[in-house]
Specification:
10 helices; binds manganese (II) ion; eight-stranded mixed sheet; Fructose-1,6-Bisphosphatase, Chain A, domain 1; disordered C terminus; alpha+beta; globular; binds 2,5-anhydro-1,6-di-O-phosphono-D-glucitol; five-stranded mixed sheet; 2 domains; single chain
Amino acid sequence: MPQIAGTEDFEAHLDRAVALDARLGGVAQVLRAIAVASIEMSGLIGLGRLYGRLGDSRASTNTDGDVQKELDVLANDLFVSAFKRAPVAAVVSEEMSEPLVLDPACLLVVAMDPLDGSSNIDANVSIGTIFSILPVLADANGAEAHFLQPGRTQIAAGFVIYGPQTSLVFALGSGQTQIFTLDRRAGRFYQAVSAPVVASECAEYAINASNYRHWDTPIRAFIDDCEQGTEGPLKRNHNMRWTGSLVADAYRILLRGGIFLYPGDQRAGYMDGRLRLLYEANPVAFIIERAGGKASDCLRPILDIVPSAIHARIPLVFGSPAAVELVARYHSDLQFSAEHAPLFGKRGLMRL
Ligand code: AHG
Ligand code: MN
Ligand code: MN
């Protein structure tokens, strides 16, 4: 089976970007390293149990107290090795409590979630690797300081999704989001979708609804209104999807629109939700914005937030712009939140 005629090869795409702007040379090298490592990841994930017990829990936990799976650690080691062969000054990872200094003379740092969707490894559901590439700060006091920049300063960011297809989703420099898919026969990535655009309207939401009782009023109000369908104030039937892998929900929303929400809630330790700003929210917000979508912490654009710590969590809402703006309205205007829905009486009395 031949490649689709005229489909651009990943290497050629990067060469062209660097020819247009030589300052992207270093970041292109980092992207090439990510692509090479992800091909190895794709191969071993595709083998599943034939390779080993990748989904088994280890005795160790990561910085958030999550039990580490074999594949979390393997992926971390594989990508750290790749970054040692690229111009990377330091790496922050979900699986390492401190930044790892590689070559302090280099001008780029990388924050990564080496394996996103760990609970789905054994379920044979799509999982991924998320990455954020930042410029070093000239006056940084210690390695950590390089990472405490708002996501707006990312030079490139994105994720690899290991699913029925292995795809590399990224935005580079000031460019739009691109999707390259691995041709497993050739061991190379080819452009699959050029500059996807997130649909402006949405009729599909992604949220872990089992947390309903822990949510604050504005999130409950928004989801109540989605569930009301054509009989409610949104006047539209909504569908729901929740994969448990941020990369899979983000990929779907890129391709067909929708909204993703992981808000803060009342559970102990979940005040700022579950997802991490540096290596989950920032890279996803970057590729969603570069595809015409929006991403917020319910109110503020994710990319404007200055991180307080390298492993800081953040409430995350992203997807179709109209829907993300609507969620902000439910939060900024509590009267709107209370009165908007037909459940007004109940909501107004019981929840505010
Ligand atoms: P990770 O596997 O890197 O810990 O990330 C899992 C994340 C994300 O992929 C997903 O959207 C979310 O956690 C699922 O959380 P719940 O299990 O609370 O639904
Ligand atoms: Mn993750
Ligand atoms: Mn992870």
